Structure formats: structure tokens, C-alpha cells
Amino acid sequence: MLMCRDLARIASDYIDGELGPMDTVSVKLHLLMCGHCRTFIGSLRTSLELMRGHSSHQLDEDFARRIDEQISQALIARDDEQD
Amino acid sequence: MEAANYQTDEEQLIEGLKAANEADFQMAVRLYTPGMMAVARFYLDHGAAEDMVQDCWLAVVNAIHSFEGRSGLKTWLHRIVANRAKNYLRKHQREVSTDFSESLDPDLARRFAPNGRWATPPSLRSNESAEALMENGALSDCLDKHLSHLPEAQRSALMLYEAHQHKSDDVCNILDVSASNLRVLLHRARQKIFLMVETFQETGEC
Ligand SMILES: [Zn+2]
Q: What is the pTM of this model?
């Protein structure tokens, strides 16, 4: 019997479809009977979506400008070599 | 500039980079540096990672003409960073050590009774969608804070897989971890985010 703790261990694999067919069936059966685990899986999914929408593009603008500056110099140096 | 607009035409951007167009480089820096930092931070501390990423951009200036586009620009850039970081560690004889043995977060493990059932079940929330939650600036700040406190390996895995949408194979390759270890890293990181969101929704505090 799959217990709640076992399910919590493999919840990500279930969400990503990385579980084998037997385990997937065990998880689905457990979810039919257990509201707490349904809440858990649902909340874990929401957390993931939150991650996907968040912070993929956060960047320290000072750091970005330092890189711009260096690239600008490197481009000039590269052009000089080519001339 | 909106991040979403960046992604509309990668080919055009690559042409711009090859033509040494400075504005295109600036756009690429803003689009790809966060992911490159996520890769570098898996291997290096923050200061060393910034230096490494900066060096990589300089290398890109001279190598972009040889980019053939088979892998996609993002993957190509991430591989450059990963290879350099691995070389750096090899030279300095350092290894990345990470615990892959337990897939359950200790703070979550504590919430189960000895019989394996929930002792402190997840709190039932209002059906707020991720989109609605994202509108909440305080939650967004809280997420930033917790992300910055995640162990580097977990954060890098999470960022590359979720935020930068790399496939598992790519993440394994870039971070030099096995598929099963990547699963552990992802799951550990996700549990932390879950716990954070739960606390935030319950108490309104981070
Ligand atoms: Zn359960």
C-alpha cells in the first residue's frame, strides 16, 4: 500500500510523468481516496507554475551594463583585428 | 523591453550578433545571462560565477560566427558556461558535493505520522491560480528570497528546468548529474517552494 509519505516522495515524478505504469496506478488510486494528497499534488503543481512564470529573467542591471561595456570593447578590438 | 518580445525571433538575433550589432548583444545579454548565471552558480560562488559569465560573453563575441544553430542559442551558451566552469574546477581540484540520498525535504518529512499518513496535512487553499498568485508582489518578493536561499544545486536545476524550460537531458548534461539525481534536486527544490507558498498563503508572511 502506498502511504501519503511515499506519495510525497515521488510526487514530482508523478507530475512530470516520469513514473512507471505500476507506480502511476498506485498514485492515482491513492489520490482517489486521500484528499490531503490531492491538495498536496494540486499545490505542488501551482508552485511549479509559479516558478515557471517567475524570475527567469531577473538580472542585476549593473552587472548587465558591465557586460555590455566589455562586449562593446571586445567588438571594437575584433574590428581592429579584421581591418 | 518585455522579456516575451525577446523570444520572438532567435534567428534574427543571431544574425545581429554575427553582424556585431551592439544593440543585439545588449538584448542577448539581458535575455540569456540569468540562465548562464544559473549554470555557473551550480559550480561556483556568486563572485566567481559573475566573472565566469562575463568571460563567456567575451568568448561569444569571437565564437558567434562559428555558431551553427543546431542546438539553439540558449543551449549553446549554457554549454559554454558549463564547460568553462568544469574546467575551472578541474584546475582548482574542487568538486561539487551534493546530497542526493533523500528525496523528501526534512521540513516536509516532519509532517508525517509514523504510520506514513499526514500528521500535519497541507492546508486547503482557495483555488487561486498561479497567475493570480503572481500578481501578488509580496509573494513574488518572497519567492525571490526563498530561491536565493536554496542550495545552489537545487536552484540551478530548478531554474534550468522550470524557468528556462530545458529538457531533462540538457540539464543533466549541463550540470553533469545523472537523471535520477536531477529528479532528486528538482523534487527537493519544488518542496521548498511548496512550503513557502503554503506559509505565505496561511499567514500572509514570508
Ligand atoms: Zn495521502
A: 0.76
